[in-house]
TrEMBL record:
GO terms for biological process: cellular response to nitric oxide. The chain holds residues 409 to 684 of 684 of the full protein. It comes from Mangrovibacter phragmitis. It comes from the Bacteria. Keywords: c-di-GMP, Membrane, Transmembrane, Transmembrane helix. This is Diguanylate phosphodiesterase.
Length: 276
């Protein structure tokens, strides 16, 4: 290690590089963030495509960092996943989203649902089913107002156990959504094996849906496939009127995107709803 030179010596001595040190700092900052309640959830509305009504919200985590300001999940979740901290963070997300939804229900919006993103590591936890059911019980929520969004790839490590956990949740009424569909490695048989109730078409397909683009044919095919598997179809990342019309025309059930509503802090959700 000494051949790396005097200046680098103290890094290598501890068996770690500079990026390792940064990761360690991020991990301890996230532990502190959990203790100090620096994480918060933003809520992005999901709309019924045929009626335009708000049907619920996707909870998206943010970190209100004391020095760096509001941080997006891409800047800290990969590290949380790598070091297992996503279990504690994800438990907090589930609890907070259910707590908030119960509050909105108490204010009269009893038809609203909430979707929570689940990481691969959370899905690999044997206690997941009990945890989710306990959380619904804690806030007196019927299971069908909770959707768990998983990605195609997150269930692949342990397909049988993941599928059986999801099936147990689905049997209790919790909805399972396949997020970012079309970007992973999953084949169609695998999709059939997952006990899903909803499929979210990845934004990558939605960006380029000009007439004549190959994406339009792919998207039409995905929607057909979802129909035959009796899955609801969500188009996410809808940014233009043309995209909205395109997906509504193809029979998409649910629309989500900046055009219709950006992720909002919890306290802005009810005012947003009344303004419409
Ligand atoms: P995702 O689950 O695919 O969430 C959609 C992302 O697209 C969100 O980014 C959302 O703000 C953004 N988005 C929504 N509509 C539009 C649009 O019209 N245009 C564009 N350009 N973007 C749009 P965000 O909040 O930064 O989240 C990024 C990813 O981080 C999420 O992707 C999800 O995979 C992950 N994530 C967020 N919160 C959680 C969480 O609580 N737990 C876990 N495990 N993952 C989370
Ligand atoms: Ca999602
Ligand atoms: Ca997505
Ligand atoms: Ca994504």
């Amino acid at each position: 290690t000494k051949q790396h030179g005097r200046n680098n010596f103290h890094f290598y001595q501890a068996g770690m590089g500079e990026s390792q040190i940064q990761e360690n700092q991020l991990v301890s900052a996230m532990h502190q963030a959990l203790r100090n309640q620096e994480f918060c959830l933003y809520y992005q509305p999901k709309f019924s495509a045929p009626t335009g009504a708000i049907i619920g919200f996707e909870a998206l985590i943010r970190w209100q960092h004391p020095e760096k300001g509001l941080l997006a999940p891409d800047s800290f979740l990969p590290c949380a996943e790598k070091y297992g901290l996503i279990i504690a963070v994800g438990s907090w997300v589930l609890d907070e989203a259910c707590r908030q939804l119960a509050q909105w229900h108490a204010q009269g919006a009893t038809h609203w649902s909430v979707a929570v993103n689940l990481s691969a590591l959370q899905l690999a936890q044997p206690g997941l089913v009990a945890q989710v059911l306990a959380c619904l019980e804690k806030y007196q929520l019927p299971p069908d107002v909770l959707t768990l969004e998983i990605t195609e790839t997150s269930a692949i490590n342990n397909p049988q156990e993941s599928a059986s956990r999801l099936a147990q949740l689905k049997a209790r009424g919790v909805k399972i959504s396949i997020d970012d569909f079309g970007t992973g490695y999953a084949n169609l048989l695998y999709l059939k094996a997952l006990p899903a109730s909803e499929l979210k078409i990845d934004r990558a397909f939605i960006i380029d849906t000009d007439p004549g683009s190959q994406n339009t044919a792919i998207v039409a095919l995905i929607i057909d496939l979802a129909r035959s598997l009796k899955l609801n179809v969500v188009a996410e990342g809808v940014e233009t009127e043309a995209q909205k019309d395109f997906f509504t025309g193809l029979g998409c059930d649910v629309l989500q995107g900046y055009l219709l509503g950006k992720p909002l802090p919890a306290q802005s959700v009810i005012p947003f709803f009344w303004e419409r």
